[in-house]
Amino acid sequence: MSSEELLRGTSGALPAAPPKKVFVKTFGCQMNVYDSERMVEALVPAGFAETTDMADADLVVLNTCHIREKAVEKVYSDLGRIRDVKAWRAAEGKTTIVTVAGCVAQAEGREIARRAPVVDLVVGPQSYHRLPDLLGEIRAGRRIVETEFPEADKFSALPPRTGPRQTAAFLTVQEGCDKFCTFCVVPYTRGAEYSRAVADIVAEAEALVARGVRELTLLGQNVNGYHGAGADGSARTLAQLLVRLSDIADLERLRYVTSHPRDMGCDLIAAHRDLPKLMPYLHLPFQSGADRILAAMNRKHTADDYRRLADRIRKARPDIALSTDIIVGFPGETDAEFAETLRLVREIGFAQAYSFKYSGRPGTPAAGMDGQIPDAVKASRLDELQSLLEVQQKSFNSGFIGQVVPVLFERAGRRDGHLVGRTPYLQLVHVEAAMAALGRILPVAIASASQNSLTGTLHAA
Ligand code: SAH
Ligand code: SF4
Ligand code: F3S
Fold first, then answer.
1. pTM score
2. Domain boundaries, position 251
3. S-S: 331 plus which of 106, 304, 369, 437, CB 3.0-4.6 Å?
4. Position 11 in a domain
5. Is 177 in the pocket of ligand 2 (CB under 6 A)?
6. Is 107 a pocket residue for ligand 3 (Cβ < 6 Å)?
7. Mean pLDDT in the chain?
C-alpha cells in the first residue's frame, strides 16, 4: 500500500452515488496539459464528465507546477477560492472533492495537506492511473497523500485515448530528468528519466490520428535524450522514433519539446534535414551565456558549445526557427556575465524565447549558494533581456509579411468567422476561414505580424 492515510473520517459524509462533473485547472508545462487530458480520460469510466465551470464540479483538480515560487503561490491562492466554492456548495447539500495533482503535489504533499484543509486528495504525477481507486477511498471518508513513485508504469495502466477530438495533440514519450541542473526541481518532482517503448507510443499516436489529430508534439523533460525500447528490445533514439511516426499516413506534422543541448545527436539534426513532417522549429534552452554560470548551473555545456550546435542545426535546416529558455540573476551572476547572455542572444537570434528571473527552489543546490541576487537587479536584467527578445521575435514574424505559408487550422478564433492555425514555425495565425478548414493545412498569405502572432488571408492555390 503506497498511499498514506492522514486522517480518517474528517471529510464528512460523502454521497453513495459517484460525483459526475470534474473541473481541471492546469498550470505549468505541456506535460501537465497532457497529464490533465489523461486524468480526465481515466475518470470517464468512473462516471465523470469534464466541466469548465468550477461551481458545477463534484471533483476539482488543480494540476500544479513547482518550477518557480510564483507558480506555487498561485496554487495556494486558488485553494483559498476553492474553499469558498466548496463551502457554498456544501450549503446547497453538494459535496466537492478537492484534489491537488502535479509537481507541487509531488514536492509538497504533506505541506499541502497541512496548510490547506480544503484538500481531500494529493496525488503525484506517477499515480494518475490510480485516481478512480483513490476517489473511492476519499468517498469512504479519508484524506490521502499519494506521492510514491510506483513500480508500475502509469502509461500502460491508463485507459486508451478517448478525449475530445483535436487537430494538434501532445504525446508524452519521456518523463523525468537525470541532469540535475542546480536550479531545477524537475528531477525531484518527476523522478528519474524514463522512456516509453516505441510500440506504445506508435499505438497512442495512431489512436490520436484516427480521432482527427494531424500534428503531434512529442513531450519529455529531456525529450531528445529519449531511449525507449524498439521491437527487439534495444534502445531507439528520438530520431528513430520520429522516422517511425512519420510513417503514419494521416499524421502531417511532428514536433518535440524540450531538448537539452547535450543530447542533440547527429541523427536528430539530420532528421531536421531529411524528414518532411518534422517541423522547422526547435526549442533548445541555453539558460545563460556565461561559462562560469553554466558550470555553476551544472548545464554540462559552454556558450561556445551552444554556438557550434546552432550552426550545425542551421546547416542541416537553414530556415529552422530557434527558441530557448533563459534564466537571469542566477546566484553570483555579475553584470558582465549577464552581458554574455545578451551577446549570445544577439548572435544566435531567436524566433521565440522564454525568460525568467531565477527563483530559489527548496531542496535544490542553487538555493543555498552564495551571491543570491536582489530582486530589483533580476527585474532590470529581465527587462533588458525581454526588450531584446521582443525585437527579435517581432523581426522574425515581420519577415513573413507578403509570404504564403502552409497553416494547419486548429480551432475557432475569438472573432466570428475566424480560425486560428499555426505555421511550420509554430507562429499563431488568425485567418478568416470557414469551419470546414479545421484540421486542414491551407496556404495563407501573411498580411501583418506582431510579437506573438500573424494575420493573413486564405490564398487561392
Ligand atoms: N526540461 C526543460 C525545461 C524545464 S523547466 C529543460 O531542461 O530545458 C522550463 C524552464 O524553466 C527551464 O528551461 C528554465 O529556464 C526555467 N527554470 C527552471 N527552474 C527555474 C528556477 N528555479 N528559476 C527560474 N527559472 C527556472
Ligand atoms: Fe531541469 Fe535541467 Fe532537467 Fe531541464 S535538464 S528538467 S532544466 S534539471
Ligand atoms: Fe512545472 Fe512540473 Fe512542468 S514543475 S514545468 S509542471 S514538469
1. 0.94
2. 154-398
3. 369
4. no
5. yes
6. no
7. 94
Q: Which of 103, 194, 327 to mutate to test the pocket of ligand 3 (most atoms within 8 A of CB)?
A: 103
Count of domains in the chain? 3
- Number of the ligand 3 atom closest to the C-alpha atom of 67: 4
Instruction: Please indicate, yes or no, whether residues 188 and 87 belong to a single structural domain of this protein.
Output: no
Residue 5 lies in a domain: no
Is 310 a residue whose pLDDT tops 80? yes
Q: Whose CA is nearest to atom 5 of ligand 2?
A: 179
At residue 111's C-alpha, the angle toward residues 105 and 112, to 5°, is 55
**Together in a domain, 99 and 199:** no
Quickly list DSSP for 247-264: T-TT--EEEEE---GGG-
Confidence at residue 460, expressed as pLDDT on a 0 to 100 scale:
83
Same domain, 132 and 159: no
Is it the case that residue 22 has pLDDT exceeding 90? yes
3-state helix, strand, coil in the chain (%, to 5): 40, 25, 40
- Atom nearest to 190 CA in ligand 3: 7
The three cell numbers of residue 363 are 531542496
Give yes or no: residues 336 and 389 share one domain. yes
- Whichever domain contains 76, its CATH number is 3.40.50.12160
Cα–Cα distance, 138 to 119 (Å, whole number): 11
- Residues 367-400 have pLDDT tens digits of 999 999 999 999 999 999 999 999 999 999 999 9
User: Does the beta carbon of 285 lie inside 6 Å of ligand 1?
Assistant: yes
Give kind and range of the element (H or E) at residue 325: strand 321-328
Q: Decide if pLDDT at 10 tops 70.
A: no
- Answer yes or no: is 4 within a domain: no
Q: Tens digits of per-residue pLDDT, 238-261?
A: 999 999 999 999 999 999 999 999
Q: Are residues 29 and 138 in the same domain?
A: yes
Q: Which three cell numbers stand for residue 284?
A: 533548445
Determine which helix (DSSP H) or strand (DSSP E) holds 285, and give its type and residue range: none
Q: Is residue 190 within 6 Å of ligand 3 at its C-beta?
A: yes
Q: Determine if ligand 1 sits within 6 Å of the CB of residue 186.
A: yes
Kindly report, residue by residue over 249-299, the tens digit of the pLDDT.
999 999 999 999 999 999 999 999 999 999 999 999 999 999 999 999 999
Domain boundary, last residue among 398, 425, 447: 398
Which of 67, 226, 286 has most ligand 1 atoms within 8 Å of its beta carbon, as the pocket-test mutant? 67
Last residue of a domain, one of 146, 180, 209: 146
